[in-house]
Each structure stands twice: as structure tokens, then as C-alpha cells.
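User: My instructor asked us to take a sequence, write out its structure as C-alpha cells, and then describe one feature of it. I'm not sure where to start. Here is the sequence I was given:
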Amino acid sequence: MVATPTRSACVTSLVWWLLAAAEAAALVVVAPRLWRAARGAHRLVAGGDVVGAGSISVVIPARNEAARIADCLAALRGAPGVLEVIVVDDESSDATAQIAEQCGATVVRGAALPAEWVGKAWALQQGVAVAKGDVVVTLDADTRPSAQLPLAARDALLQSDAHLATVAPRFRCRSQLGRWLHAAMLTSLVYRHAAGARQARRDAVANGQCMVFRRHDALHDDWFTAVRSSTIEDVALVRWLVARGKQVEMFDGRDLLVVEMFDSFSDTWRGWGRSLALTTVESPWRQFSGVLVTALTLVAPLLL
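Assistant: Let's start with the prediction itself. The C-alpha cells for your sequence are:
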């Protein structure tokens, strides 16, 4: 006598097959992204032509960064190809400006924040406006650039057809749990957006901790005014450029740029939580679909 499957067994089997089908559909979406990411980005190398076209201004927006700004500036003074290092002091209440001046930087005292602007975009706007270099390299205060980074970034930009490039660094996390969480969050970006590949799509992402571009392009098209109200100004900017037919890229800067990440697991969680969903640049539907695809490709396989 052949046993008849119970109703619960049939339901379980149906759920399993539906989940497997959903995973297969998600894989169709994710596979091209992984392929694009696997192609890799242009890797920055030291040793460019110091006399080559394009003097470099380094612009660093900083607000209450007294504890970190000196380490950021340490390698930039006298760096090859660098005309000037500008720190835009965004109304700090600590000694950020004084320390930056002691480290040899030109300090721009940031003006009061205008209506509809967010702080970082406004600081970048002010720094780029006073820069004298043909090429601008922007850095966050938590970055630790090598002396060769600005020149390598400039050369890579000028050898490409990109209007803007951002640089992916090597991340340094103090907490072991923070390292695991950070790696997981970065992986989810690859599954959702093919981060690290050549960026020419409406879902392009960026790393605003280091950007490189021609000063004329940014001023002529008023880049930072275009993204003045976005708290994720780097992603907003690359998508604004892509929407206008401009090429953007992400360079691999692991050999020349280190970023000191959050001190603890809780800080890492809060930091990623502010930006991972890309709430100011993604529609609710795209946010939901990104979470769904990530869950189906990274979490669901563990359940089957």
C-alpha cells in the first residue's frame, strides 16, 4: 500500500519549491552583478609622472576631527604632484583647524550652512571653490592616504574617460566582530549593485571617502549644488552624473589608502545603518527589492 503524503508534508514541499524557485530568480538578477564586480576595478599604483598634466588640490571636509585629522594629513605634506592641501573646517567646536594648520594645511573656515544644504556637500562646495589645482582629490578625515595616492588617483582619472572616480580603500577595523559585520555589509553591496565595477548604471554606488575629478567639471556643472540636500552625497552625485550620460568609475586603492573604521561593533552597526539602505537616493521599491535579493541569495541557501 502506497502511503499518501500528509497535508503538512505537501505544504512543506510546496514552500521548499517556491523558495528554490525564488532563489533561482534572484540568482538570475545577481549573476550579472557578480560578473561585473569580478572584472575588477582599475588598481591604483604608485610612481606616476609628477610633471604630468594636472596640478592637484587635496580637499578635506572636517568637523570636530581633532583626534584624526593629523593622521590624515601626515603623508600629504610635500606629496608628489600636490599643489595644496585644503581643510574645510565645518564649524568645529574642537581644535581641528589649529591642528590642520600645524600640519601645514590651508584651513578654510566654513560658512554657516545654507538652507536645504547638508554639511558635507556644503564643505566640499567651499573647498572646491577655492582650490587652485586642475584636479581635486577629496578625502575624509578618517582616511590614511599614502603620499603616492593623490598622484596615482589623478593619473588614473586622466587616463580614463571618467568625469568622476571614487577610490575603494583597504578598511581597518579595531573590533573582530566589527570586521565580520563590515565584510558582510560590503558583500551585500556587491550583490545589490555590483560595487567595484565600472560605474555606468542608474544603480551606481560610490565611496565618498575619496573622490577624484577635474575642478572645472565640478564648478561648471555645479555638482555639489545638485546633491546639496542628500545625506548620501557620494551616491547621489554619481547617479546624477550617470543620468546625464557622464562616465563614473571606482578605482581600487587598497595599496595606497587605508580607512580607519569604527571602534566597536555597535559603532559599526550604527554607521552602516545610516547609509546601507540608501534611503535618500533609492525608492522604497528598490530598497525592498535589494533586501529581498540579498536575503534570497545570501540567507535563504542556509535554510535549504
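For the description part of your assignment, you could build on this observation: Residues 56-300 form a domain with the Spore Coat Polysaccharide Biosynthesis Protein SpsA; Chain A fold (CATH 3.90.550.10). Try explaining in your own words what that tells you about the chain.
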